[in-house]
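User: For a benchmark we're assembling, each entry needs the component sequences followed by a predicted structure for the full assembly. Here are entry 17's components. Please fill in the structure.
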Amino acid sequence: MARHSPGLKPRGLALIALVPLGFLAVFFVWPVVAILRLGLDEGGVLATLGTAEVWRLVGFTVAQAAGATAVAVVAGLPVAFLLARTNLPGLGLIRVIILVPFVLPSVVVGLAFRTLLPDGGVWAIVLANAFFNVAVVARTVAGLWTHLDRRAEDAARALGASRLRTFTNVTLPALAPAIGSAAAVVFLFCATSFGVVLILGGARLRTLETEIYLRTVELLDLSGAAALSLLQLGAVLAALSIGAIMRRRRETALRLRGKAESARRPAGGEWAVVVLAVLVVVLLLVPIVSLVVRSLSTADGWRLDGYRALTGFGYEGSLEISGLDAVRNSLAAATDATLIAVTLGTMASVVLVSLARNKVRYVEVIDTAFMLPLGVSAVTVGFGYLVTLDLLPGDLRTSAALVPLAQALVVTPLVIRIMLPVLRSIDERLRQAAASLGASPWRVWREVDVPMAGRSLLTAAAFGYVVALGEFGATSFLARPDTATLPVAIARLISRPGELNNQMAYAACTLLVLVTVAVVAIVERVRVPVGEF
Amino acid sequence: MRFRVLTVVLAMALAGCSVGTTSDDQGKRVVLVTHDSFAMSKDVLAAFTRKTGITIDVRKLGDAGALTNQLVLTKGSPIGDVAFGVDNTFASRALDEDVFVPYQVEVNGPAEYNIDNTNRLTAVDLGDVCLNVDPAALSAKGVPEPTSYADLTKPEYKDLLVMEDPATSSPGLAYLLGTIAKFGDGWQDYWRALKANGVQVVSGWEEAYTQAFSGSSGKGPRPIVVSYASSPSAELDDKGNPRTKAVLDTCFRQVEYAGILNNAKHPEDAEKVMDFLLSAEFQSQVPEQMYVYPTRKDVTLPEAWQKAAPLPTAPAELPAKDIQQNRERWISEWRGIVQG
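Assistant: Structure for entry 17:
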C-alpha cells in the first residue's frame, strides 16, 4: 500500500466534503433534476431529440463555440507571450485591461457589437464570445509560460532552429496542457453564452442555450427544454472531460522557473508578436471605449448627465433604487457570494487534493461535478428553484439571500480551479517532514499548506468577486427590485425609453468597469500567478 | 502574510456584507408578483401602507410571458398573493390553468376588457403597440409619414422599418397580431410584401428602439420602429414637444390584468391590494410610471401625454382564446415567411 499522506483523517475529510457537496446538492442538483423530471414526465423528450431542428441547434452551438474558442486562443497567445516572456513597461495595465470584458453585462456587449458590426451575423457572435474570453486564454497560458524553463528554447536556437521552429517544436508542446485546459473552459463559456447570442443572433441564429430559455420561459415547453438541457449537459461533460485530461498531462512535472529568469526584452521577430499582442489589446478596448463614449455623448454634445443621474432613479423613476444603491447592492451581493464561494471552494479543494494525495480513484468525477454549474442554463436552475425551494423552511424562492447563493454557485468552480493547482504543487516531502516531526494533520495544513496557498486564496477571492459583480443570468432572474445589482439596473435602464436612461445605463457600465479595474489592480499588486482555470 | 489575507477578507466583509440582514419587519405583507416593467411611485405605495397597514412586496419575474409561465409552474404553491401583468396574449393560459380566484373590483372602466365573466382577471392598464416614426428624418428623406399598415409596403418606405422578432419580444408579437387582426387571412401576403420591402428584424425592443431607430437617443438609421403609443411622451425636445410620433392606425391593444392567486397565503389582504391597483391614486400614476394608459374612466391623462401620446381610439384587437390557440403556429409561419 502506498504510504498514507500526512493529511486529514477520512472522517474529518468526509465532514469537510459534506459542506460543498451539500450546497451543490441543495442549490444545484435538486432543482435541476426536479425541473428536468417535470419535462421528462410530460413525455415527448425522445421525439424532440429526433427532430432535425434540434441537431441543427447542436451543430450551430458547437460550431460557434469552437469558432469563438479558436479566435480566443489565437488572440490570447500573443498576449500570453507579452505577459510571460517580456519585461516591457505597462504590462500591469494590460493584465488589468484584458479582464474588463469579463464583467460587462452581455446586453451591453451585444449592443456594442451590433453597432460595430451591423451585419455581423455568425461572425459577430463568434467575435463577441471570444471578446469575453481572451483573458482566460491569455492569463492561463501566461501562468505556465512564465515558469517554463527557457534553456530548452535557447538550446534549440543554438543548434540552429529558427524562432518559429523553436516555438512549434519546443515551446508549443510544453504549453499545450495550459492551452487545452483554457480552451475547454472557454468552450464551456461560449457554448452556454446567452445574452450576446440572443441579441446578435435574434431568432435566426439560435443555440441550445437561447432555445432552452425560449422554450422554458416563453413557451413553458418543459419537455422540449428538458431534451435540450440533456444534450447541453452531454456537451458540457465532454468539454470538462477533455479539460480534465489536459490538466492531468499538465501536472506531469515540468521544470518550472521563476519569472525573473524567463522574462527578457524582446528581440528580432519577437517584436512582431508584441505588436500583434498590442493589437489584440487595442481591439479589446474598442467595445469598452465605445461604451464610455456613449455614456458621455448626448443630443447637446458631450455631457456628464448620465453620471450625475447615477445618484437618482433614472428618467421618471425607471429604477426603484438609485444607481448608487445598485452599486452598493452589487458590492454587498458580490462580497457575500465571494465569502461563500471561497469557503466552499477551499473546502472542496482541500478534499480533492487530499483524495488525490491518497490516490483515491474517481477524484476527477467529483472535480467535474463541482464544475457543472458553469455549464447548465441559469434559467434551468432558476425554474428549478421555483418548484423545489418552497419545500425548505422560509420559502427561499423570493428571498434576497438567493442572489449571493446563486452567484456563489457560479464562482465556486473558479475558486477551485485557482486553488487546486497551488495546493497540488506543494511538495509532499515538506508535509511528510512536518508529520514526522510530530505535527498533527491539522497542524500540517496550518503550517505548510495555508501559508503557501494564502496568496492564491486572495487571487481566487478577487476573481470570484469580479465574476460575481458581473454575473447577470441568475442574478436578473432572482434579484428583487430593491436588491437589483448594477448589471440588472443597466439592463433595466436600457429597456426603457428616454435619453437619460440610456446615458445613465452607459455611465453605470463605465462605473462597473472602474470598480472591476480597481479590484483587479489591487490584487495584481499582490502578484500571484493565476491558476489553471 | 496571513495577517494581510485576514485584513482583506475583513475589509471586504465590512464593505458591504449583507448575510443575515434579510430581516422580516413586523406588519402585514402582501407579495405582488409582476413583470419587469412594473413601476409605481414610492409615495403612492407608502400612502397605501399608512392607510391599510399592508406593505406591498414587489417581485418581478421577467416579461408577461415569463410571468404567466412561472405562475402556471407554481400554481400549487404560489410565489405571491397577487399577480399583475398577465396580458391578453397570455391570459387564456393562466385562466385555463386555474391560476387565479374570482374577485370583483367595483370601479367604472375595467369591465370593458373582461375576458370572461368569472372575474378572475381585472384589467389594470392598456398599452398600445404602434408604429413610431421620426418625422424629422422622414422629411429629410422627402417621404411623408406613413398612416397605415399598407403604406409600409410602398417603395418609398423601402428599408425604413425596424421591428422586434415576435418569437422573442412582446411588442413584436403584438405588431404581428395587429396585422393578423387587420388583414385576416391575407396577413401572410402583407408580410411577404414587407420582407420584400426590406423590414429589419431584431431580437428585442432595446435594440430596435434605442439603437436602430433614428428618433431615440441612439440615432440609428431607421426612421420607423415598432414601439408603444406612449413612447413619444419620453422623447421631448427642449420646448417639451415630442420629437417622435405614434401612427395611431397601426396599433394593437395589450391589456394587462391583475388577479388574486389560487392558494395565496394572505387572501384578504390581497383583496385590498386589488382595490388599490384600481384606485384613483394608483391609476393616475400608471401613465408616467409604466408608460401605459389607465383602465379607470375617471382618471385624466397627464398633460405631456395629451400632447404626445393620446390613447388610440380604434386599435386592433383579437380574442384572447384565438391568441392562445394560434400563437405558436402564427409565430412559426411568420418565421417561415420573414426569416425563411
